[in-house]
């Protein structure tokens, strides 16, 4: 309180005088949650004149104190300047000797802060965000999919970032508003008066820095979400360039021909490249290749992921494998599925690789560096024969 009153006094010395907003409404938890408890303050310009300011806890939800009470303050030299956020009544007086303090009993003043402390309770401030938190938890744990894979490659990372932003914003609120309020009440209860000229600049710099960091994070999160939406697109396979996956035409060799491209709702089928992006996995491709070779069909479906940090590649490999097994067993529970982990001499440069066979389809799930690939092949050859070309495509 002393810092805030000293700041208002410094503003008056620069010709900026506290002015109550025309629209008066009580403080809500949503306001504090969004703004961190720091509403914009309106000032009136005038001739510089240093004034004293005192913030007293409002004793009712009405914007102004009763006229009788205002008259009592005016007799002592204090004028009611307005209400601040529905929490405080602001009084001002000329900065000169002879004007008594409105309150001389710190303990009695401390009792007035009960109402303010009740409105600043962390539980009430978190309440407006509970639906967001619940929706995030439902999206992570109740939707039938792999939560880690969804976090690394999908939209739940943005939800997690939003939750982190809310927690950081409320931590700032707790540190700069609720905790000092509790400390002030203890101080007043012990008979120690408020220092109305307490220095504020160092604390204000820390407060601005923390809010700047948190709001910058929020802006980056929103920008990432918009970029994720714009990055999602599908193009013809023939129009894609510098693909980090092997082309089926090169694997099958002479005699192979791609099926003709068909369009449905402005999307190409069956040979296409679908691009996606997420914060933790910026490189995501889904490549579909279908054609004919030697009088029979040949198909290669590739899911490619390139994580931002190498430490995430191993967990993503495990999640891709687990998700693939879950989906195969869900749609074909009776089909025999053989799984084999490839040895070091068979992996052709991959750090870890697993080969699966089910109903004539071979699937290779492998990881190398930052990249994780899942390739399902249905054709006349063995998928393991393509491993050198697949590794070369990743390196290229």
Give an overview in words.
With 396 residues, this protein is of the alpha+beta class. It contains 13 helices and 16 strands. Strand 11 and strand 12 form a beta hairpin. Helix 8 crosses helix 9. The two termini are 62 Å apart. About 4% of the residues have low confidence.
Give a concise summary.
By secondary structure, this protein is of the alpha+beta class.
Itemize the secondary structure elements and their pairings.
Elements lengths: L1 H12 L2 E3 L10 H7 L7 E3 L5 E7 L9 H9 L3 E6 L3 E7 L11 H6 L2 H6 L2 H5 L3 H12 L5 H7 L2 H34 L11 H31 L1 E4 L11 H5 L3 E3 L3 E3 L2 E3 L2 E5 L6 E11 L2 E11 L6 H19 L6 E4 L10 E7 L2 E8 L2 E8 L8 H9 L1
Antiparallel strand pairs: 1-2, 3-5, 4-5, 6-10, 7-11, 8-9, 10-11, 11-12, 12-16, 13-14, 14-15, 15-16
Helix pairs in contact: 2-9, 7-9, 8-9, 9-10
Structural class: alpha+beta
Q: Write down the overall geometry.
A: elongated
Percentage of residues in strands:
15-25%
Radius of gyration: 33 Å
Largest sheet: 9 strands, antiparallel
Distance between the termini: 62 Å
Q: From N to C, what is the helix and strand string?
A: HEHEEHEEHHHHHHHEHEEEEEEHEEEEH
The overall pLDDT average reads: 87
Uncertain spans: 23-38
Give the beta-strand count.
16
Number of helices, where a helix is a run of at least 4 consecutive DSSP H or I residues: 13
Helix residue percentage: 40-55%
